């Protein structure tokens, strides 16, 4: 609530009789350190965007973010050109956006107000939960970086870069998480200083974890290693399988999950769907060796059976035995070659 007040998010006004008034609620979240221990308890006050009316409370909503493929590209560039990699987090990022629409919100519970209050809050800044909040934040951060001399990448709107002679710095934003690489320490520090003047930023220093992936950089060679070890440990702990036997390969042997109608249906398939969804993130982001099995398991999200749950746990036991495997980028002396292929679909 202090952040809302500091950013001048809204003002108390009489309840309008002819305007939509959106709801709100509290969201609670735990943040973990690199060892999987609880590092922070977060409470965030958000709007209930589903109570907004299209064409009145919002119009455009799309906001680009850095794709994970682009994050891997930045890390590969850092290894090749011996760049330092730093990460930052923007506190209450969405509160920086200026609203164009006239939006009214119920006053928060627990602060001496109730839903029948004659007062409501007219929002002047964007707030978490509003459908257009990501777009307004993207607009603000894009303008700030371009004012600092950065250029937005034509192919990836979430990547920004600036070159000064032989020195360069590149940045990638994923909502409020910032990844920054530079081949010059002063240029990197100057960039962070300018950003701190514009936003309330938490400087996390050298990269350690980004988008759920553990990232290590060798301080001398600048080689970059990425893996899902911490994430896989969390999955094992969540399913109470930390001592599970390791599987040597991701494929389940001696079981045909396409022909197991005799296997009982799971009474609650939500845990199966959740696990397969997490497998998809692991496979798409880094572990392509599990892609076939995860795709196969995804066919049964609507009606999973015991046999499918057994197969899913088999994949998890394989990941347990290979959790330290990942991607490794190091400097190469080979010339950079750009190859372009066309596909005529057999024509």
From TrEMBL:
InterPro entries: DNA/RNA_pol_sf (IPR043502), RVT_2 (IPR013103)
Highest taxon of source: Eukaryota
Species of origin: Trichomonascus ciferrii
Ranges of residues in domain Reverse transcriptase Ty1/copia-type: 13-250
Pfam families attached to this UniProt entry: RVT_2 (PF07727)
Name of the molecule in the record: Reverse transcriptase Ty1/copia-type domain-containing protein
